[in-house]
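Quick one, T. Sequence first:
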Amino acid sequence: MASTSFKDRNLIAVIGDEDSITGLLLAGIGHINEQQKKNFLVVDAKTQVSTIESAFQEFTERKDIAILLINQHIAEKIRPTVDLYQQAFPALLEIPSKDHPYDPSKDSVLKRVQKLFGD
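Structure tokens:
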């Protein structure tokens, strides 16, 4: 059993494009903690892959995050890292964006489920 209870996890983190982040911030997911760390990363064409990977690592290691949402087209940039992630918390969900539709064949969680059920 993990040393930190799932009950302590009460935030949603997001790695996404500007439109996705803006919509989710307007919905109220934004948070900045005492160390001035945000629970979101806006990714644009200039964002380095290393920046995306470090944000992914930070969000998956934080004990206050329950769900990590990531635009699927951004997850593709760090696919090996995303595919290696297998923890229950924070739950990882790949979401579509305005310009990039969801492709179930690329979703790492869906691939694992299909493998589990032998599909």
